[in-house]
Write a structure and sequence with these properties.
Layout lengths: L7 E5 L2 E6 L5 H7 L6 E7 L2 H8 L5 E5 L12 H7 L4 E4 L9 H7 L2 E4 L1 H4 L9 H10 L13 E5 L5 E4 L15 E3 L9 H7 L3 E5 L11 H7 L4 E5 L9 H7 L2 E4 L1 H4 L9 H9 L1
Helix pairs in contact: 2-3
Length: 280
């Protein structure tokens, strides 16, 4: 029989948070006490193995440690495991909280990564673990509305044009036509050409998808040159695919089409520089 490790319990009228030193302690506690519907905080890495252990509690939400993210993002891969199950989850920066010390994590941890379900509850990087736990229990930070396209205007330019971040070119809207520079986060392959020609943004920056076989991750750049649409791609190793804001804030240009090059966009520029050039 597994050793029973009692967690620190933080209870309010809104709910309970169970704070464990390790995800490995969760299953034994669940077998003995039950924990369904609680927020589980465990000072283990937020990977898939630990997420499976925590899910034995059927938690309302979960928080682990990012453990420096690590190879292949393994330190936070459990966030998407939880996401697939509809569970809000976050990871705390392991430079702010001790591994294997749940109390320190609860008292001093700072959130570094969140999944989409947590974002919908208003959880974001920079919150303390305490603040995140309270918000997950009370819903106090839940946005009135949540935009699945996560459209964010990051810069405005002449003639009413703007640089807009959105997670996919499929989330473009009619007002983008001949007006906005879109920073999106899918690849720039042939399947997106139809979207570019339909929405005709003033310009766009997508991911190169690591370019891939036969340069398939960037073929749309040349295809839309004929349409006079300025386009560029960022290196997928510099910005997260599926996150348009990361394209803009983190991305480094890896490929451009002739229309964008005529505006001064170059390989090696930041996406922010490139978007500004397209805007002007």
């Amino acid at each position: 029989m597994a050793t029973l490790h009692e967690p620190d319990i933080h209870a309010t009228q809104a709910g309970r948070a169970l704070v464990f030193d390790s995800a490995t302690h969760v299953e034994a506690y669940v077998d003995a006490r039950g924990a369904e519907g609680d927020v589980v905080v465990a000072a283990s890495y937020a990977g898939v193995l630990c997420a499976r252990m925590v899910m034995s509690a059927k938690p309302a939400a979960a928080i682990g440690l990012d453990c420096g993210i690590g190879k292949d993002g393994a330190g936070i891969a459990g966030l998407w495991y939880y996401e697939a199950l509809g569970v809000p989850a976050a990871a705390a920066d392991s430079m702010t909280a001790e591994m294997g010390n749940g109390r320190d994590m609860y008292e001093n941890g700072v959130i570094s990564r969140v999944n989409d379900a947590a974002q919908r509850r208003g959880i974001e990087p920079g919150l303390s673990v305490k603040e995140a736990v309270e918000a997950l229990m009370t819903g106090s930070r839940r946005p009135e509305t949540f935009d699945p396209a996560r459209r964010l205007v990051v810069e405005s330019g002449p003639q009413g044009r703007s640089v807009v971040c959105t997670d996919s070119i499929a989330f473009a809207v009619p007002e983008d036509k001949d007006r906005n520079v879109l920073c999106t986060a899918g690849h720039t392959g042939r399947s997106v050409v139809e979207y570019f020609r339909t929405f005709r943004p003033w310009g766009f920056i997508c991911s190169d998808g690591s370019i891939g076989k036969n340069d398939s991750g960037i073929t749309a750049l040349e295809d839309v040159d004929a349409d006079g649409i300025a386009g560029a791609s960022v290196d997928a190793m510099t910005a997260r695919m599926g996150d348009g804001q990361s394209t803009y804030f983190d991305g480094v240009i890896s490929a451009v089409n002739k229309t964008a090059a005529a505006k001064g966009v170059k390989i090696g520029q930041t996406a922010r520089e490139a978007a500004r050039l397209m805007l002007d």
